[in-house]
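Ticket 4471: requesting a sanity check on a complex prediction with zinc ion. Repro inputs:
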Amino acid sequence: MILPIVAYGDPVLRKVAEDIDPTLPEYKTLADNMFETMYQANGVGLAAPQIGKAIRLFVVDAEPMDEEKLKGFKKVFVNAHIVESKGEDWGYEEGCLSIPGIRGEVKRPETILLRYQDLDGKTYEEEFTGMAARVIQHEYDHIEGILFTDHLSPLRKKLLKGKLADISKGKNVDADYRMRFASANR
Ligand code: ZN
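Returned structure tokens:
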């Protein structure tokens, strides 16, 4: 089932999401729906707050970004917590399905050590680096209530202010997928 994607401005995108019991069957269905929603919107990652749920679950399939290095990098991350970040920060132009039409360079650490669970409740502690680490950190930010625009320079943020305000109102939104706007619900 394709779910509407929550747009910038909805308070759910600002919540620190909570741990869940990954073995509940409802989360298997939710993860399937999130993959379907993400593919339909041509995204490489989608976090639960983006479909309106403040829980620590996100899905990624970053293979389209680098078909060699990220081949088969399709995963569900539950209850993720970054244990350690290391390496040099590097910049890359990011975008976000909740903030259509806006891109900006974000600097992030090269490598992360991540503790997380799968949908069977198995716990992993795994190191990710390069583009995989970047995609995970973007989604991880979502479950911490952080958006990529928070990382932009003060000047860039100032320049984007009007555009972001428009998105939160559903004005001039350039997205070819279904979205949900905070202002329309209140
Ligand atoms: Zn995002």
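Notes from triage: The mean pLDDT is 95. Leaving this open until the requester confirms.
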